[in-house]
Structure prediction request, 171 residues.
Amino acid sequence: ISTLVNIMMTFPFILLALAVISVLGASFLNVVIVLGVGAWPIYTRVVKFEVERIKSLDYIQAGHVLGVSNLRLMTRHILPNLVNAIIVIGTVQVARLIISEAFLSFLGLGIQPPTPSWGYMLQESQAFMFSWSDLWLPTLPGLAIFITALSINFVGDGLRDVMDPHQRAAL
Prediction:
């Protein structure tokens, strides 16, 4: 699995998405599949390294020595400590995937009309970018993408702060 993850991460995600959607065709299902396949290597790598880090902690080692089952160690100690990393990566990934979908739709390779997409709205309003009277047409979808991605990152940061045991002890 580690080699496959490394191979997947060597390719720029957006170029891989462009190539696959160009071959498969632009549809909602193809965009969802490409975005999902492109997102899993990051989760895999973060979870793998976090599990290795947590397993090397003294209390996990002591649990092994005392004969605590692997299932109990995993469910009571390892998985709860993974939640923060998964939340942070998940929120960053959601923001990244929103921007990627908008980019693909802007190029005409993403979700097709009549399904609404901010990227397609930007593409359609491209002719009005230099018209002062209609400048709001390209501005609003761009601001919506920016504010949504930023808000999702702030929510993830807040969730991490609330769920982090070290932060709770400081409060």
The chain has eight helices and no strands.
